[in-house]
Design a protein that fits this description.
Layout (H helix, E strand, L loop, with lengths): L1 E4 L12 E3 L2 H8 L5 E3 L2 H32 L3 E5 L7 E6 L1 H10 L9 E2 L4 E3 L1 E10 L2 E10 L2 H8 L4 H42 L1
Parallel strand pairs: 4-9
Antiparallel strand pairs: 1-2, 1-3, 5-7, 6-8, 8-9
Length: 202
């Protein structure tokens, strides 16, 4: 099916381009989302009469998106999830989850604006894209962790496992120090007791 694009569509064309697409893609996505019209003579003439208005509206939306994009670009959001020791999530993080986290951070986006190259199924920092407008895409970091403490560790660029091991080592060292200091006291007390008993025997 041939359609005329009413806005820029990635990997397809710019506003005003007449392109040939699969019927299902046109019927299920482009036409219902008002991203295109069937490329009939009547629709092409309608488009040409409305082109200036459509371009002006598109420019206004793009400028608004660019303003939001300046603030949103590079933003980091935290999503807390349960995961195994191998850092695999019990489930996955969806576009809906990411959109909610970004909205909670003060930006209004919906799940359709989140661009995921792959399903997020592991803990860690994930770079994702948010399409604010067909011509404006920004990057956001999604920090998936088991707790806010782990999220802070990941945000600093440290390994959660290494920090946990360091804490265990420090705890073990403290236990050993306490044991040694207790053992020293016990040895001294034992010496005093033994020496006292020896003197009594004399």
């Amino acid at each position: 099916m041939e359609v005329v694009l009413l806005e820029r569509v990635e990997k397809l064309g710019q506003m005003g381009d007449v392109v040939k697409v699969k019927n299902g893609y046109a019927r299920n996505y482009l036409l219902p989302q008002k991203k295109a019209l069937r490329a009939s003579k009547e629709n092409l003439s309608i488009f040409e009469t409305q082109r200036a208005q459509l371009e002006a509206e598109n420019l206004k939306r793009r400028e608004e998106a660019e303003k939001v994009g300046e603030k949103l670009d590079g933003e980091a959001v935290v999503i807390i999830r349960a995961a195994s020791d191998s850092q695999q999530l019990y489930g996955s993080v969806s576009t809906q989850d990411i959109a909610k986290a970004i909205t909670a951070a003060g930006f209004t986006v919906n799940r359709k604006q989140i661009v995921l190259d792959k399903v997020l199924k592991t803990l860690g920092l994930h770079d994702i894209k948010v399409r604010l407008h067909p011509e404006v895409t920004v990057g956001v970091v999604v920090n998936i962790a088991r707790s806010n403490e782990e999220a802070d560790i990941q945000a600093r660029g440290e390994s959660v496992e290494e920090v946990a091991e360091a804490k265990l080592d420090a705890r073990d060292e403290a236990v050993i120090n306490v044991f040694e200091s207790t053992a020293e006291v016990d040895v001294e007390e034992l010496k005093e007791v033994v020496e006292g008993e020896t003197e009594d025997e004399k």
